[in-house]
Amino acid sequence: MTFPTGPVTVPDVVDHIADGRDVTAVWVNELGGTTFSVGAGAEFVKVYPDEHAHLLAAEAPRLRWARRFTTVPEVIDSGPGWLHTRGLPGRSAVDPRWADEPRTAARAIGAGLRWLHDALPVDDCPFGRPSWVPRDAPAADRLVVCHGDACSPNTLMADDGTFAGHVDLGDLGVADRWADLAVATLSLDWNFGAGDFQAVLLDAYGVAADAERVAYYRRAWDSADDGAPASAG
Fold it and tell me: Which residue pairs from 220-228 have beta carbons closer than 8 angstroms and sit at least 24 positions apart in sequence?
């Protein structure tokens, strides 16, 4: 998952949705998917190739459900291989705005995951486990509704550095909270480099490190069949 580095062709469905408004490609992923900003961030459209269209079909109902309890994008419409949502205030935790403030970003990510885990009701969740979490995972430390792809880019931050919302919930499901925390702490290394940021994230979440569970869920993440979580950004 990364910012586009060159020109990106705008699909017809995005042109139709934009209806003359400005369109900018803002995010690309390893599956060939692209997220477009429409109207300077008022709306967004994610477009995936046909072989991965089912991933967006999985995300739409998860967003609709989660939005009842926490801050995630509102689904406007969806179709084969595309998902149209309203924008949320805030910027991704990996936005250049936060490049020189990784500790602030780590705190927001940790606080955001705690908010998500506390807000989403396990008993009401109509979805199974995240696709990459093994069926025979160890007994949970705390069973929660996980984001499922808790990498740094999927946390939004307000201008004051606090948590503002989550995006890309296509693999949302019930699992041990360490499924999210293991991936979230790992992704800090990818996005911000060396530092004490993992400890900052866990402190903001309000939990002590659990090396055994972290190692287990990182192995599961790395060995997922397709090499990527179902949402893939």
Answer: 220/132, 220/133, 220/134, 220/137, 220/179, 221/132, 221/182, 221/183, 221/186, 224/131, 224/132, 227/30, 228/29, 228/30, 228/31
**Residue 228 scores a pLDDT above 70:** no
- 124 annotated to a ligand binding site: no
The CATH number of 12-86 is 3.30.200.20
Residue 127 pLDDT: 98
Residue type, 176: D
Helix (H/G/I), strand (E/B), else coil: 188: helix
Quote the DSSP letter at residue 89: S
Contact 232, 52 (CB under 8 A): yes
Does 29 show up as a binding residue in the annotation?
no
Which residue intervals of the chain bear CATH 3.90.1200.10?
A: 91-222
% of the chain with per-residue pLDDT over 90? 88
* Positions marked catalytic: 149
pTM over 0.90: yes
Class (C level, CATH) for 91-222: alpha beta
